[in-house]
Amino acid sequence: MFVLCWLLSLWAAGACAAPASDAPMQVYTRATQSLDGEWKAIVDPYENGYYNYRYEPFDRQPEPPPGAFFTDSKMRTPSELIEYDFDKSISLQVPGDWNTQDPRLYYYEGSVWYRKKFDAPSHRPSDRVFVHFGAVNYRADVYLNGRKLGVHEGGFTPFRFEVTGRLKDAGNSLVLKVDNKRHADGVPTLNTDWWNYGGITRSVELVVVPAVFVRDYRLALASLEDREVEGSVLLDGAQGGERVVLSLPELGIRESAEVAADGRAGFRFRVPGAHLWSPGNPRLYRVEIATEGDTLVDRVGLRTIAARGRQLLLNGEPVFLRGISVHEEYSADGGGRVRDAQQARQLLQWAKELDANFVRLAHYPHNEHIVRLADEMGLLAWSEIPVYWTIDWTNEATYRNAQDQLAAMIGRDANRASVVVWSLANETPVSEARNRFLSRLVAKARALDDTRLLSAAMEKHYRSDDPDVAVVEDPLADLLDLVSFNQYIGWYDGPPEKADRVRWEIPYDKPVFVSEFGGDALQGLHGDAGQIWTEEFQENLYRRTLAMLDRIEGYAGVSPWILADFRSPRRLLPGIQDDYNRKGVMSEKGVKKKAFFVLRDYYRGRAGQGGGGDVAAAGAGPPP
Ligand code: GCU
């Protein structure tokens, strides 16, 4: 009997609540109740709200005491001891990192409790209700009305919890313990070259759906020649036999099918009149997926991406990726993580001003605004998981974390025409353990999505018998479609003039993509080209590097590091870096440096060299 009572009490405390489902749930185009805006917050570096003085978690106790912050308690008698009060605590804006909202939190790495009070969204008794998080960095322990919903780890991918039957009509308390501490077994691990922005950095929404709803779908152009589209729909809550109708009204497509017992239905149909999506013509089509009681509406582009030998083919025609690397940071207003679609649009607009047709979204999945705006604005995109530098390759939990982030990234963005590359790693040191870890990830990525290119930012070394021959050779490259690498000749590796003499050996019959090069410049600092940190130094480095890259066989594109200066705890030189990595071709305020115009002119010279409809968008303007 005791065991039963114990289990019931755990259930009551929510410790064994339903775990967050990791399967996609496309919410971006759904009508939802936003929980964005002001949340109350308590900074809790010793996690007093989570552990008792014997360091035992409160949420493992059958009846958590009012001292547990997730109970959101108030004094019930004049003598009751309660040592916190959300209503009297600080406020933080959601979405947003905490580092740039309160100077006391600029460097903070630890736990912050967030609390939002809300009334239940209107819904029918048969409806289901979820709370959906765009991303929380890094670990989130989530509680509703004092009961634990579950835990999510990973700072850049969406997750949700079902709260059906758990809501009060009014006065619900949603509490998160957000912990952005870094861990050696984390993904990313302890060391990165970007600021560890903590918090609920993307939107929080309540989603009401019927008992049977469209949880996911996939649409992709499977055959260019036949203009044949392959699609699938996944219903949640289906018993099998339910009818689902998939329509693309502008193309006169209306396909109907019954789902199987697992809720899935497949489709194959031809779209002879469809305009293919490309940077020069980012045509999106409305898609409607309807089942009794639920309709999901979205917009998708139809295109193909492939590698044939050393050629990169967009819609069957060679394309050159005129790229730029981008962090998900908007510091023009002193902020940190991109907070909304307007900031996302500004970053991509700056990329378009470079005459770019490609953005490398480094080093983690960016927010959904960015990939959806890339669809609209005609920018191809590379999306990556933060398997960065010295990951704990032999740790199975670390692998599972990386795989979960990969699945969540692909699950969210698999219908975005702009995304053409999934990247699995950045500058990871070659070892047997790392090769095993990444080959598992490659297999998982192929299983989740075989319609896109796989890559990773690898590294170069020099031939032992000739210091002027740079070699890109990595066991990982055998498994990838695009041989990508970062190189810093002129910055970390000799002077810019070294680029004039270096030759490259890249022994793969695959397209070659230079995922990073660059050097720092403080915007507004001028001197001669030999003076480090000046705009002239960076400008000279760009000119010589771009000329060197043009000599690489199979060179299919480049994404210089990086669009804008960004915060990093590694960049401490007073008066020059001041917590900023200055490799941007623009300052963090969006002021263009001389290198910006070198890159733009280089891309203007290459625009239209790529096929697939990749003509420079109207309004790109004449060359200078
Ligand atoms: C590396 C790394 C970047 C880093 C850059 C630099 O290549 O991929 O994340 O910011 O070099 O050192 O500036």
What is the name of the CATH architecture of the largest domain?
Alpha-Beta Barrel
Question: Low-confidence parts, pLDDT < 50 over ≥5 residues?
Answer: 1-20, 615-624
Fraction of residues in H or I helices: 10-25%
User: Describe the biggest sheet?
Assistant: 8 strands, parallel, barrel
Number of strands: 33
Question: Which strand order spans the largest sheet, edge to edge or round the barrel?
Answer: 21-22-23-24-25-28-30-31
Q: What is the class of the largest domain in the CATH system?
A: Alpha Beta
Gross morphology is: globular
* Overall tally of domains: 3
Mean pLDDT: 94
Oligomer: single chain
N→C terminal distance = 83 Å
Reported by name, the CATH topology of the largest domain is TIM Barrel
- Ligand catalogue: alpha-D-glucopyranuronic acid
SS summary, helix count? 7
Keywords: Glycosidase, Hydrolase, Signal
Domain Glycosyl hydrolases family 2 sugar binding: 73-210
InterPro entries: Beta-gal/glucu_dom_sf (IPR036156), Galactose-bd-like_sf (IPR008979), GH (IPR017853), Glyco_hydro_2 (IPR006101), Glyco_hydro_2_cat (IPR006103), Glyco_hydro_2_N (IPR006104), Ig-like_fold (IPR013783), Ig-like_GH2 (IPR006102)
Signal peptide: 1-17
